[in-house]
């Protein structure tokens, strides 16, 4: 690709994505709210590798309900906030994974297996 073609392509992309409307959007809570909220699902995904004994069943349940409710609100506002919706979809999936691990550990023999493995 020639240098001239690269320059034209770069200018075209910058004009399309780096404009007043994009800057205006990035300076709103419609953008920064979901971005800052992504800390919750990132932490949940990170915690999927931790010991099941550390999982709080009540907190995991609360976070699943919280994210399910806010998925609805993310689509109820105008304009629809797909970034917030995506954040809560990821969080619901991660927290559901934590909930499944919690249930397996406490109700389907995971705790007993862990204790037996410690005794060996």
UniProtKB/TrEMBL annotation:
Keywords: Membrane, Mitochondrion, Mitochondrion inner membrane, Pyruvate, Transmembrane, Transmembrane helix, Transport. It is a multi-pass membrane protein. It holds the Pfam family MPC. Belongs to the mitochondrial pyruvate carrier (MPC) (TC 2.A.105) family. Coiled coil: none annotated. One of its GO terms (cellular component) is mitochondrial inner membrane. Its main location: mitochondrion. This is Mitochondrial pyruvate carrier. InterPro entries: MPC. It is found in: Mitochondrion inner membrane. The lineage of its organism: Eukaryota, Fungi, Dikarya, Ascomycota, Saccharomycotina. The chain crosses the membrane at residues 53-75. Mediates the uptake of pyruvate into mitochondria. GO terms for biological process: pyruvate import into mitochondria.
